[in-house]
Amino acid sequence: MAWMNQTLVTEFFVKGFSETPHLQPLFFVFFLSLYTVALSGNILIFVTISFNSTLHTPMYFFLVNLAVVDILCTSTILPKLLGNMVGRKTISYEGCMTQLYFFTWSLGAELLLFTAMAYDRYVAICRPLHYSTMMSKRVCMLLAAGVWSISILNTSINSSLMFQLSFCHSNVVNHFFCEIPALLKLSCSPTYLNETMAFTADVFLAVGNFMITMLSYACIISSILKIHTTEGKKRAFSTCSSHLIVVSMYYSTVIYTYIRPSSSSGSSMDNGKVVAVLYTAISPTLNPLNYTLCNKDFKTALNKMFPFNK
Asked: Where does the sequence pass through the membrane (predicted)?
């Protein structure tokens, strides 16, 4: 009957990055800046592409989906983080599980979207004569439906397993948001199934998709090297270099976090916080810049909507 003496957790205390008071304003300004840039940049991408028919192509279709995912991710994590910095560092049990659900959803969707975008670049460069059929509107819609459906299935399974756990040892989350590895450390229930599912999802969504993406880019680079003109090679590399940089950073950080969900050392958790910033805040902030800063078509469409040179 020992379980009767356990006090079930109804809210969690989120430690954040630092408990040193004089560092809180710096962290607040840092994350507020990231959230402002990420939100405005991704909304700008969504609006510009949606209202410009010249950008209604497969590449920009997936960019719109990516913008939606990044808005979902940052809006799930950063507003609550900012609120905790100026108020009580707590989140209710229900709020924590909701944050976990939407973050895991956006995480899975982003990983799958990167693979879909790599496939689009593969077809564009390696199979240009078949691009219109291999990347038709129907194919793009099916790929997007697959991305959202698989990511929803993944987060539903992991969230359901998390709901079955009891949290009674501690309510102190050694992180800045509710993430699977951090919450598993607080459970007084067996977590083997949760850890197995988190590991399996990471192998499939991160490692598996990363390998597919790298295979696509191996084929792309091979095709680019066969191009005779320097200008042609430069143009081909420019269409995929930004995507490759983003993918490499994102996959490596996610794999680092989820491939070892049972790690419990304090230094490992502190490192995990820094790594988590990359895929919850930095990546959504940089994505609009990486994909649109050097894109002439996007800048032309943006200038039509907001003529800066009047």
From this structure: 26-47, 59-78, 98-119, 139-157, 203-225, 237-259
